[in-house]
Amino acid sequence: MRHTLLLALAFAAAPAFAQSNPQIDYPGFEALTASVAAERAARLIAFDAFKAEAAKPGTLLLDARSKDAFARGHIKGAVNLPLTDFTAESLAAAIGADPNRPILIYCNNNFSNHISPVPLKRAPLALNIQTFINLVGYGYPNVRELADVVDFTDPKVEWVKN
Description:
Order of helices and strands: HHEHEHEEHEHEE
CATH superfamily: Rhodanese-like domain
Strand content: 5-15%
Mean pLDDT: 90
CATH class: Alpha Beta
Low-confidence stretches: 1-13
Number of domains: 1
Shape: globular
Structural class: alpha/beta
């Protein structure tokens, strides 16, 4: 009984405590997420268009999966910057000086294989969602996202391993 009461008190106090850290802004995240929802939906592109855009000079194909997953396989030409490493500085280093540079993203949930290095994630937690929100939040508005589910063994995907 006492344990249950302590847990209830801890959970009741958690939101107030979470907001006391000025370096964490959950309401700001919620507002950013809501503000980019329609934009994200409009920036989903089919696989053939994705590959055509990736072939254009100046376009960055960004893989935000872990370094380990990237090393085990990725789309040819992709640059790896794990989402956990996103900072203003690391993004500027990977993307370059032009914040309007075209950026293409994909994640595990774009592949039908559901094996390492692309195990299926829960749909609401797919890496594309966080990656898109973070890129826009850091000031990169020209992000497009692979809309399709493809098999990485399909030669058109151009899957490579390091």
